[in-house]
Each structure stands twice: as C-alpha cells, then as structure tokens.
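Handover notes (outgoing to incoming on-call)

Open items:
1. DUF1439 domain-containing protein: sequence verified, structure written out, both below. Nothing else pending on this one.
2. Nothing else urgent.
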Amino acid sequence: MYLFKKTYIFTILSLILLFSGCIKKFDTDGLTLKIDERELNKTSEYFPIKQDFVFANIDIKQPNIFISNTNRLNANMNINLSTIFIPNAAGTFTLSGNPYFDKEKSAIFLKDIQIEELKFSNMNIDKNLTNLLFTNMKPVIDSIFSNIPVYTIDKSSFKGSFVKDVKIEDSELLVTFGL
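DUF1439 domain-containing protein structure tokens:
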C-alpha cells in the first residue's frame, strides 16, 4: 500500500511537471529538465562587481544571460571602465561559454569563455586598444564565471546529487537527472 501511494504521488508530480513544460524528456538516461532563461536571469547577490587594477578600474553590472543559436550560453553585461587614458567609459560586452555542473557547489558554471563583443556608448576606442582590453579582461571574466554560478540547485534538495549531464541542445539549457 505504501509503495503504491509513493508511485501514485510520483506519477501525479511527473504529469504536472510534464504539462507545465519544463520536462524535456524522460528516458533511460534519466529525467531531462529545461532551464528557462528567466531562471538564469534571477538577481544575483554577486553583482555588481568592482575590480581595481593598477592602471584601470572596472565595474560590471548584473548580466543578462541567454542562449544563442551557437549552442553556448551568452551574457550581455553593462560595464563602466576608467583608465589613465579613458577617464570614464560606459559600455557593454557580450561573452559566451559552455555550461558545466560542479557537484560540490551544486551549481552550473561557464567554461571556455570567449568575449564576443565590446562596445562603448560614449566614445570611439581604437581597435588596438579594444584588443588590449579584450586580452586584459579575459582573466577577470574567466575568474568571475569560474567562481560565480550561472544557475544554482538548492543543496538541501536531492536534485543536486542526481545531476548526470548539463548541455545546450536546440537553443535550450538541459539538465539531466539520473542515477
């Protein structure tokens, strides 16, 4: 009787999740859920980030995370930059990366990060200086996204210990749970 009740409740919950649209598939690999972009863009306690260097200061605002047609996670970020040569420049940059799951932290992070675009709204910057900024910002961006998760699964939840795979397929972030 007790096993029947558990099976019944599990079936009802699965059907509710299936019809709510977050279940992508349920097969021998396990249960695959789709993570919506709204979930990825919840306000983070980690932002804004202020980084001071010898010759420059940078202020990075909350990213807007989305999935592109390249099957990578992308983030648009507003920045404020001030250097010896540039007193105060506001701009945006776009980066992309591949998601991976860290079981210890029960969170999804980005790896293989590439800075796709860097624009400043209040000034034109020479291409050589932009390339220099790309080169110098890359370690900072790598550090940010290796320490700040894109998505976190509650550690008190059982789900974090059953994550098998995280991937982007057909412009959707998919998390597969299984044994």
